[in-house]
Amino acid sequence: MGGSIGIALLNTLATGAATNYLVGKQPTPQVQAQAPLESYSTAYWWSAPFFAVGFVVTLALYRRGVPTGHPTEAAVQM
User: Fold this and answer.
1) Residue 1 belongs to what H/E stretch?
2) CA distance readout (Å), 30 to 22, 24, 34, 38, 64
3) For the whole model, what pTM was predicted?
4) Nearest-angstrom CA–CA distance, 43 and 1
5) Fewest CB atoms within 10 A around its CB: which of 17, 37, 50, 66?
6) CA–CA dist 76, 67 (Å, integer)
7) Is residue 4 part of a domain?
8) Which region, left, alpha or beta, applies to residue 65 given φ > 0 means left and ψ of -120 to 50 means alpha?
9) How far is it, in rounded angstroms, from Cα 9 to Cα 36?
10) Beta-carbon count within 10 A of 47 CB
11) Interval 13-72: pLDDT, tens
12) Considering its fold, how many domains does the chain have in total?
């Protein structure tokens, strides 16, 4: 679910960047070739902070050591 929302958000940002780039310009082949590059660049720059925040959250939630089982699971094995 989160991945789908993230992809939809980045797609929206990329589409908006391409549209904003094309506004007021003549549709020459060079301009039409540059518009997707602008959209990719915008999506990459917006995704970098998302990945950085995800990395920090992962580091904050990471637990060191060997995982222990639930107390009821230990009692069943004995």
Assistant:
1) none
2) 11, 14, 6, 12, 53
3) 0.65
4) 19
5) 66
6) 17
7) no
8) left
9) 16
10) 16
11) 999 999 999 999 998 999 999 999 999 999 999 999 989 999 999 999 988 888 777 777
12) 1
